[in-house]
Write a structure and sequence with these properties.
Blueprint: H1 7-24, E1 30-35, H2 39-54, E2 58-59, E3 68-73, H3 78-97, E4 102-107, H4 113-122, E5 128-130, H5 138-146, E6 152-153, E7 175-179, E8 181-182, H6 193-197, E9 201-202, H7 205-217, E10 222-226, H8 243-251, E11 258-262, H9 271-279, E12 286-288, H10 296-301, H11 308-319, E13 326-333, H12 340-353, E14 357-362, H13 380-403, E15 409-417, E16 424-429, E17 434-438, E18 447-455, E19 459-464
Parallel strand pairs: 1-2, 1-3, 3-4, 4-5, 5-6, 7-10, 10-11, 12-13, 13-14, 17-19
Antiparallel strand pairs: 8-9, 15-16, 15-18, 16-17, 18-19
Length: 465
Amino acid sequence: MGNFVSASELKTQNEYIKKTAALIGGRGKRAFVFTLGCQQNEADSEKIVGMLTQMGYTMTDNEEIADVLIVNTCAIREHAEKRALSIVGRFKHYKAKNPDVIIGVCGCMTAQEHRREHFKRSYHYVNFTFGTGALHRLPEFIYNALMGGKRYFDKDAQTPEIAEGIEITRASTYRAWVSIMYGCNNFCTYCIVPYVRGRERSRKMEDVIAEVKDLVKRGYREITLLGQNVNSYGKDLPEKTSISELLHEISKIEGDFWLHLMTSHPKDASSEMIEAIKDSPRTSGHFHLPLQSGSDEILTKMNRHYDLEKYLGIINKLRKDNENITLTTDIIVGFPGESDEDFEKTLDVIKKVRYDSVFSFIYSPRKGTPAASMENQIPEEIKHTRYDEFCRVQNDISKEINESLIGKTVRVLVDGKSKSNEQVYTSRTQGNKIVHFECDKDLTGNFINVKITRADTFNLFGEII
């Protein structure tokens, strides 16, 4: 059916799983998976680990002893690509010591033709690469490598398909990622995502609901619905639906859990979706709405399809009757053509909205995107100067907001012990604020109440109530 992998193809991959398990069964083979990038990549890696486990591999954190090495790459910024190349580069030594080691590279970076060719020509020890749309074919690639098959560099289909039923080995027992859609139709001029993840494809609502129900039944306390633009969920399905309808259905599920959305595009932030968020105590604690720039001129160059007036209108709707909601955003500093005045407009918005925190980035040209060839590229020195100024302004705001919580009691989900002090635990509020507290009992994965006694720019500190 349309955007979905056929049952026969899934059956074929299951056969590869069985054949691989028969080949390596009882031989103590180990696999290592390294993940770069966003939550969607983390969710993809959980599927990769799930399939490797089915094939008989034991996961290891020690890459030096692994029989299979997989790097799940990111292409959103140049730094992420350089890091991936560095990681794959050091795998060369493992292959030299043991020619039977299988090395695979996947993710957004390998969906770019010039990167596939680079791996093919310059990394002769890499067995295979594949993009996000071929994730379900990992068993086939592994089996082919085990049997001494030729190196393989998969080229994603223009519109990759959704594969349901892939085994997932989740990294946490209480926090979970649930992908509700893949790809993007927006083609922001700076962004590589539509080119490497394809056009928007939504999962069927019944499949999403079933996955969330299963997670809640198993005791998961926080569930994040993932998509490059979750606001446009369901528009591509034959039985037209929407993110607001999905949220209403999930709100009917019994259980004590929080629900987050990642990420929302302002142009598709409907009044119905905002009301659905505000109606449920599970979703009303936090909302992430990327702004990218406070200048309408720059937003137009970015192809964002909204202006500042519309964006601020959404913020006002979110805060109406829900003034304590935690708001976060994304900002790009130094986009081509950004003037001092444009940058000042961004600072003005930051001061006006007063976000709890901001994910800010220095513009990084991505090969194949329109912005990479635009005139008036901003010099690195100016970009870094503006970035430093932006961080100074936002850090002051974040600290002020955090300090306003001193003396208040907040509900948190406990993440676990601090690495530096076994008596200190780290947790997060529903608004994704980090809270540290001392405790002599392991409460990882539980909701508790903490009274805030101290705050800084990025952290809250408190004591258990």
